[in-house]
Amino acid sequence: MNSKIIGKPLPIIDAAEKVSGGTAYIDDLKLKDMLVGLALRSPHSHARILKIDTSDAENLPGVAAVLSKNNTTNKKFGINLKDETAFCCDKARYIGDEIAAVAAVDRETAQEAISLIKVDYEILPAIFDPFSSLEKTSPILHESNSQNIANAFHIKRGEVDKAFSCSDEVFDGDFHTHLAHQAYLEPTGCVADSHPNGKITIWGCLQSAFLIRTFMLSPILNMKADNFRVIQTKPGGAFGGKLDVKAALIAAMLSKEAGKPVKFLLSLEEDLTCMRPRMPVHISLESAWKRDGTLLGKRVKIVADNGAYSSLSPAIMSSIALRTDNLYKTPASEIEGKLVYTNLIPSGQMRGFGNVQATYAWESHLDDIADNLQIDPAELRIKNYTAKGDVSLHGWKIASCAVEDATKYVVDKIKWKKKRQKGGKGIGVGLASCIHVSGNKGFSVELGPDDTDPSSCEIRIDREGKIEMWSGESDLGQGATSVMAFIASEVLNIPVENFKVPPTDTGYMPFGMGAFASRTTLIGGNAVKIAAEDLREKLLSVASEFLEVSADQLHISNDEVIISSLPNRKISLVELVKKKGNVIKGSGTWLAGGEVLDENKYGNPSTTYSFSTHGAEVFVDIETGEVKVLKIFCGHDPGKVINRLGAEGQVEGGTVQGMSYALMENLNQIDGSIQGSNFHNYLIATSMDVPFIEHDFFESIDPYGPYGAKGLAEVAINPITAAICNAIYHATGGARIRKLPITPEHVLEAIAGIKE
Predict the structure, then answer these.
(1) How many domains does the structure of the chain reveal?
(2) Same domain, 716 and 693
(3) How many Cα atoms within 13 Å fall on the side-chain side of residue 311?
(4) 670 CB-near residues (< 8 Å, 6+ apart)
(5) Which among 225, 240, 265 is the end of a domain?
(6) pLDDT in tens, 468-500
(7) Are the C-beta atoms of residues 237 and 469 closer than 8 Å to each other?
């Protein structure tokens, strides 16, 4: 493709604003008479609420609203599973559960009001382990659920028993992952303003403005969704953690009660201990093989720690269950999954949406198998990879795929064969691969106006020459608005800098599902491309009237429409709009392909799929268990790269984020209390921890993506944990990390296991 914009390394369009300090975040928003909102949170992991006395708080001067179970609805909400109320109605189920909230003239008054609320608790037995929670004698968290199982499924496809009986070798392994926070720099917060006409405006760092009003605001406040105008502010990071934002609900409820705007911001401590971190899971694997390295079948058991409430957790567990069977040709598979309630912080979605956990377990397991079968780990993967045109065991249709090319790149760059011969002396190399969706229609039910996973866009040129692009898709700092501006620029042949992309605003922008599931480039980008093509057609049609030639003799260049054979005959876009009226606009809607999964979770959930392979070289101190990542090489198949500079940032950022998750991040809890309530003791990777990283793209040019593009944000993080674990295995001569994070203690434990 001969392109002026697509594939070029261009800076994101709001980069200068951000680095110069011009970006306004939610805490910068100030409204007249705005109040401060704070929440009273449970100090107990599990306690029945016998009585709440808010009278002293209500009578405190400067307090405008006090909310609790005494004066709010007990209606339940949640995206996949509705099991949570705005405030605890019967009991608190984790330390941090919202008991009450206040709105006052300033933070000091709000804090005093919170201290005046009296709560009588009956302390109940608490459970902090999912396996213990499954025992018959375990305390019940939700009285409507007698087994503490929020969600469960059993999938069996192909001839599983025959696969195992006909196999030459059977291998098993158990893997455990941990709680990890998204560690965005800007804590969660929202501002709400209730208007005299009954409508409410909400501002906040939100991954999906439309979903917030659909699954949370509308049902709990018993108002039509259109009565809520939700405006996205510039985000200071999200990574999945700001898709399910209860702060929006509490801010709206407080504002409605007080009749004034309310700013409800979480402190860093609240964010680290009350938001929804990456789900911890226990994965047991058993797989059947031929000695030549052919995969015959597998059995998988998943026990996931749901925490106190569910929301998106059922979908995340499904993601964990299904991903790896679609990366490799898997003739037969049996999967049992249990999502279990505990008295811990509700777990949720983080970049990768379960794929990080699944890839860590399966890709680690593959290296164990390769070692036992005496087959090179890279060759074992290449032998079993899915390929373009395949339909997987679970019904995924692979329209484009370059994972083998990505793997061969990593093997070459890391000097694989040479370094694999030198393992077991503290230096090792390992690799891992993954597949990821670009949008996920399989989990779209109840999220949008229907199950089509639509995205719409409108591009407007006014009589002053201002070009605005309206889209319901969110930019979370990943450069989504830039990608959409580049696509429109390519279609219209108008400079990128001429496009303005306002933040998502449900008050006047068309519907978009938002930023999650690596869907924005594919689904939002296709809508932009259709809208830009529509606008181009309209501009050329109008211009043909005034230039007195047919539209096919015209082209757009910069801010003019020109007769191709007579370049001196032309008309500016400003003149064109003025002659036609006040504005010329193009619009477009793209309905994602794929299928909503059936009751057995079979179907093609995404229009297309992205792939990647990461390779890591590590040093392991055999005496102390300390691990240092020396080099990382990444090969990615995101289809056509729209903005190379932005894509490189996604890869490098995702790789470092995944490495940080693997080596150091951990929301450690003791008796239900999170111990890492700030960035002094919740450790994340800094610039000093970043190793040498080299990467490349293998553009499979997808038939459905805009200019062949697919998603990249999540596929960039998924494999690195397993790659590091496999490198440790190689460096130590067989120490398998079966429990994350990769602390020195866990490394030494794994080394001790070799000797046993």
Answers:
(1) 3
(2) yes
(3) 26
(4) none
(5) 265
(6) 999 888 887 778 888 999 999 999 999 988 998
(7) no
Alpha-carbon gap, residue 379 to 710, rounded angstroms: 26
Q: DSSP secondary-structure letter at 347? A: P
The per-residue DSSP string of 183-208 comes to: --SS--EEEEEE-TTS-EEEEE--S-
Q: Which of 206, 230, 265 is the last residue of a domain?
A: 265
The residue annotated as part of the active site, out of 575, 714, 745, 749, is 714
Residues 6+ apart with CB under 8 A from 248: 190, 192, 202, 204, 206, 212, 216, 217, 230
Within 13 Å, how many C-alpha atoms sit on residue 266's CB side? 27
DSSP secondary structure string for all residues of 483-550: HHHHHHHHHHT--GGGEE-PPPBTTTSPPB--S-TT-IIIIIHHHHHHHHHHHHHHHHHHHHHHHTS-
State pLDDT tens for residues 78-126: 888 899 999 999 999 999 999 999 999 999 999 999 999 999 999 999 9
Q: Is 594 left (phi over 0), alpha (psi -120 to 50) or beta?
A: left
Same domain, 688 and 581: no
d(CA 538, CA 689): 52
Residue count of the chain, please give it: 756
CA dist., res. 128 & res. 135, Å (int):
12
| Co-location of 619 and 548 in the same domain | no
Whether 536 maps to a domain, the answer reads yes
pTM for the whole structure: 0.95
Tens of pLDDT, residues 495-518: 988 998 888 899 988 887 777 778
Do 543 and 561 meet the contact criterion of CB atoms below 8 Å apart? yes
Instruction: Give the residue carrying structure tokens 């209860």.
Output: 246
Count CA atoms within 13 Å of residue 478 on its CB side: 29
Confidence of residue 1 (pLDDT cuts 50, 70, 90): low
Closest by Cα among 1, 4, 15, 120 to 482: 15
Residue labelled with tokens 């912080």 = 345
Q: Tell me whether residue 276 is in a domain.
A: no
With 60 as the cut, is the pLDDT of residue 389 above it? yes
- Is 714 catalytic? The answer is yes
Whole-number Å distance between alpha carbons of 210 and 304? 28
Where residue 446 falls among pLDDT bands split at 50, 70, 90? very low
Q: What tokens were used for 123? A: 């302390």
Provide the CATH number for the domain around residue 227.
3.90.1170.50
244 lies in the same domain as 320: no
Same domain, 427 and 310: yes
Reported as a single tens digit per residue, the pLDDT across 394-426 is 999 999 999 999 999 999 999 999 999 987 789
DSSP state for residue 581 in the 8-state scheme: -
Domain interval for residue 427: 281-442+597-755
Cβ pair 86, 99 in contact under 8 A: no
Burial class for 439, CB neighbours closer than 10 Å (0-12, 13-18, 19+): buried
Give, in order, the Cα–Cα distances in Å from 323 to each of 314, 400, 404.
Answer: 15, 16, 17
